[in-house]
Amino acid sequence: MDYTKKRWQVLIACCLVNLCIGSLYAWSVFAGPLLEKFNGLGANLSSLAIVFTIANGVGPITMISGGFFNDRLGPKWVIFLGGILFGLGMIFSGRVTGLGGLILTYGLMVGLGIGLIYGATVSNCVKFFPDKKGLIGGLTTAAYGASSVIIPPVVVRINAAMGIEKTFLIIGLVMLAVICASSFLILKCPDGFLPEGYVPPVRSGGNKAVDYDWKGMLKSVTFYVMFLMLLCGAFSGLMVTSSASAFSQKMAGMDVAQAANIVSLIALFNTFGRIAAGYISDKIGAVNTMSLSFVLAILGQLCVYFSQNGNVLYYLGCALIGFCFGSLMGTYPGFTAGQFGSKHNSVNYGIMFIGFAAAGYFGPQIMNSIYAAGGQYRPAFLVAAGMSAVGLLLSFVFRKLQVKH
């Protein structure tokens, strides 16, 4: 079999699958109709937020466990199973009658399904493209991020025409069918695969790259530096995306429609950042790309902090924050494989992704706590700038460790 040609088929299928599971980020347009459905049952937007937090946080569980089977059996059946779990979770979410049922269906079923799929698609594609790790990591994660632009208006139209129960049913059935059908086009990357004409670079000193399993990775100090860099970088991105509409209305005096435009702006730059940073990282290296991203993130956070009434500075800051969040997510799959090898990257990246899940909890929580304490969102952007500054310092620590090694 000509795997050098087949790998492009795998990439397209994986991007299509990731586009489907990225519909997780359509949660904001599901939440309003669900609140109306649960009217009188004690639910509110704050209580519903726990559903998204759970869905976003449980992913590493199945990324790690699914990665174990992905490395041994291949991604097809892992993605197929994830598609069933994800699709049924969506379908059943439209049938539940309370918050507890929604936590089970959308929070756990959808979240765990995404973990199975995302780890398999991204890691398998990176293995197939050792010559373009950064770009491929950027493309596969960009497909996931692009869903936050494409799916919400679709959900809004279906809901307006048919109601929330049928919206979940239609979305769930379509996603289940597309993911499960696409899984049969996704081949397992052979161990040691190199595309035709590609000669892997030799490391300084003539040493060959080493494939670390998860135990070997956890023994490395470098892992913990990378883990903290991911947490710092994802912190502000998840803090902002979780509350973009709310703080745009409070800080910048925008109406609902204008605030929705800010959400779309952040999503677009998030998607573009994943592709651009993935490509750039193949040219200048992942850690150099992330250092630049942290600098731009600090600039973006300060732009929002010092902006007034939704002026140009505000739009620029939101665009930079979205771009830098995307660049981090696009770079990290290839960064992890480049540091610890591709062979066990499914499990290794799943463990690394715990840093993202932690940021998904602390970022929104700190944003909400700051607003609850003082009635303002603005100070949260100084906290985010501080976290990005720590991430920048960690990137230099990483370089020192590499030189020492």
Description:
With 405 residues, the chain is mostly helical. It is built from 16 helices and no strands. It has two domains: 3-183, Up-down Bundle (Growth Hormone, Chain: A), CATH 1.20.1250; 210-404, Up-down Bundle (Growth Hormone, Chain: A), CATH 1.20.1250. Helices cover 81% and strands 0% of the residues. It starts with a helix and ends with a helix.
Question: How are the elements arranged and paired?
Answer:
Blueprint: H1 3-21, H2 27-37, H3 45-57, H4 59-73, H5 75-93, H6 99-128, H7 133-162, H8 164-183, H9 214-218, H10 221-251, H11 256-284, H12 286-306, H13 312-340, H14 345-352, H15 354-374, H16 378-404
Helix pairs in contact: 1-6, 1-7, 1-8, 2-3, 2-7, 3-6, 4-5, 4-6, 4-14, 5-6, 5-8, 6-7, 6-14, 7-8, 7-11, 7-13, 10-11, 10-13, 10-15, 10-16, 11-12, 11-13, 12-13, 12-16, 13-14, 15-16
